[in-house]
């Protein structure tokens, strides 16, 4: 039996070195066989150092996805390229989009993708939220448009978010299908909640204003499609992004845990024995 630990939205850039060390000691004390990290580890410039720091502290395989904050100050393409190289050269770090299906036990697999809020949940075109994603990530940046026009082209941004969601959905549809063809159960590690019902905010489901920026509808649709083809299998999704804890039973064989988070106070969300 393997003991799996899950953390998400740890935002290590908000912690001084000694506080990071205390967090790592908490993880060490949990005697984990595998650590899962659900994204938002740092910012683009600090991400490689934090990944190395976690690897040096945890004597176990570390499977991770990236969150939106991990791309701040850079581009999605360059961060993914750098992380892929970094993980490939590492002893224990494994970036899930490059891993495919991971065997956790004789009965359980792990798959995962960073994913992205795809704008399709809630009411994107009436939403007045302006995330830092749209200012600090190259592919999504609307800063130049705002300076020039004091507004921005929402349709253009919507299409970019759609494309990111579609990429994640296509990937998870393929690899989860592979996993459930070989294992009766699987964990799906991701960052953005894949269903409205799993997009929690302070104990409630996020409203129409927030949902477009915090949930990935097509990722959830892909999960349901795969389970339709494998009705006897069970899937557990681990996500974050909203900083609010919640649990959603989407189907009898599909459950979603959403992790809570507070800047400067990372926690071990949950452990699983598989």
Portion in beta strands: 15-25%
What low-confidence regions span 5 or more consecutive residues with pLDDT below 50? none
Q: How many strand elements? A: 13
The CATH topology assignment is Purple Acid Phosphatase, chain A, domain 2
Strand order across the biggest sheet?
5-6-7-10-12-11
In the residues, how many domains can be counted?
1
Radius of gyration, Cα only, in angstroms?
Answer: 18 Å
Head-to-tail CA distance between termini? 6 Å
Q: Helical content, roughly?
A: 25-40%
Shape: globular
Q: Please identify the top-level CATH class.
A: Alpha Beta
Going by helix content, strand content and strand pairing, the class is alpha/beta
Fourth CATH level, the homologous superfamily: Metallo-dependent phosphatases
What is the H/E order?
EHEHEHEEEHHHEEEHHEEEE
How would you name the oligomeric state of the polypeptide chains in this document? single chain
**CATH-derived architecture:** 4-Layer Sandwich
Mean pLDDT across residues: 96
Count of separate DSSP helical elements? 8
Summarize the biggest pleated sheet.
6 strands, mixed
């Amino acid at each position: 039996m393997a003991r799996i630990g899950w953390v998400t939205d740890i935002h290590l850039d908000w912690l001084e070195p000694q506080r990071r060390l205390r967090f790592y000691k908490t993880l060490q004390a949990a005697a984990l066989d595998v650590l899962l990290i659900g994204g938002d580890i740092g910012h683009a410039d600090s991400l490689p150092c934090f990944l190395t720091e976690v690897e040096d502290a945890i004597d176990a395989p570390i499977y991770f996805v990236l969150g939106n904050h991990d791309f701040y100050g850079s581009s999605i393409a360059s961060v993914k390229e750098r992380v892929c190289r970094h993980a490939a050269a590492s002893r224990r770090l494994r970036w899930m989009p490059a891993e495919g299906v991971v065997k956790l036990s004789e009965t359980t697999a792990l798959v995962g993708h960073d994913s992205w809020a795809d704008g399709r949940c809630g009411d994107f075109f009436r939403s007045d939220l302006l995330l830092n994603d749209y200012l600090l990530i190259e592919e999504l940046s609307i800063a130049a448009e705002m300076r020039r026009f004091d507004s921005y082209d929402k349709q253009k941004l919507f299409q970019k978010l759609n494309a990111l969601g579609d990429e994640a959905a296509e990937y998870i549809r393929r690899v989860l299908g592979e996993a459930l063809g070989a294992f009766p159960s699987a964990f799906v590690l991701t960052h953005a909640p894949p269903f409205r019902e799993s997009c929690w905010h302070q104990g409630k489901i996020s409203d129409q204003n927030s949902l477009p920026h915090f949930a990935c509808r097509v990722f959830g649709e892909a999960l349901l499609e795969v389970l339709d083809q494998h009705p006897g299998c069970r899937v557990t999704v681990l996500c974050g992004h909203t900083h609010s804890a919640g649990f959603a039973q989407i189907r009898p064989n599909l459950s979603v845990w959403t992790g809570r988070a507070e800047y400067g106070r990372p926690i071990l969300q949950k452990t699983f024995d598989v």
